[in-house]
Amino acid sequence: MRPGTFRAIRWVGLTAVVLLLACGLLATAFLRGFSDNRCFLIDHAEVVDELREGNQIFYLVYRITGWHDKVAFYELYATLPSFDTCGHPKDEPLDGYVIDDTEARRNEGRMDEGRMVKDVLVRNTKYGKKLEVRYTRQADEGVEPNHAKLIPGDTVKPNPEDNPREWDTEDTTGADGE
To answer: What is the DSSP-derived secondary structure letter of residue 39?
Structure first.
């Protein structure tokens, strides 16, 4: 054996052991983080408006999720939502609506290329309460997504350009008017 060979083998062996221990510790910390209700990815969620219809109050939540490619959307709740430490709701929303992707271009400073949120409607459909987002290209009519106002949908005629959803918006009120 050449001089120093034993020292090189010992160094490689010790380095491998240290790397294996480090990987094991990282894997344990990563897995324990999920089991201890820690989050790998935290959503941003905030209640931005509410709408009173009779005795019922509906809450509009603006949520952003994603790591690199973020997705922004609205959610409609029949009760004031609460969120866990990861930003996930503890109750199921009545409906959700993904905000048009051109919104991201407006946030990059190119307002003329994208549509802006004008307001958010709550429509009565045969499938229950559904959200509809109205957009505008007029800067004076648009608002930041986290400042949108929730308005009753029966006061505004549906616009297929804003909402290509395929649900029936005809009168679905029950005998009690709700």
So the answer is: -
Alpha-carbon gap, residue 129 to 60, rounded angstroms: 12
Give the predicted TM-score (pTM) of the model. Answer: 0.64
66-77 pLDDT, tens digit each = 877 788 889 999
Q: How far is CA 30 from the centre of its chain?
A: 24
Bridge partners (DSSP) listed for residue 136: 116
pLDDT in tens, 138-149: 878 888 888 889
For CA atoms 162, 168, 171, 173, the dihedral sign is negative
Give the CA radius of gyration of the chain: 25
Nearest to 165 by CA among 70, 73, 98: 98
- Residue 87 phi/psi, 5-degree rounding, is 85, 10
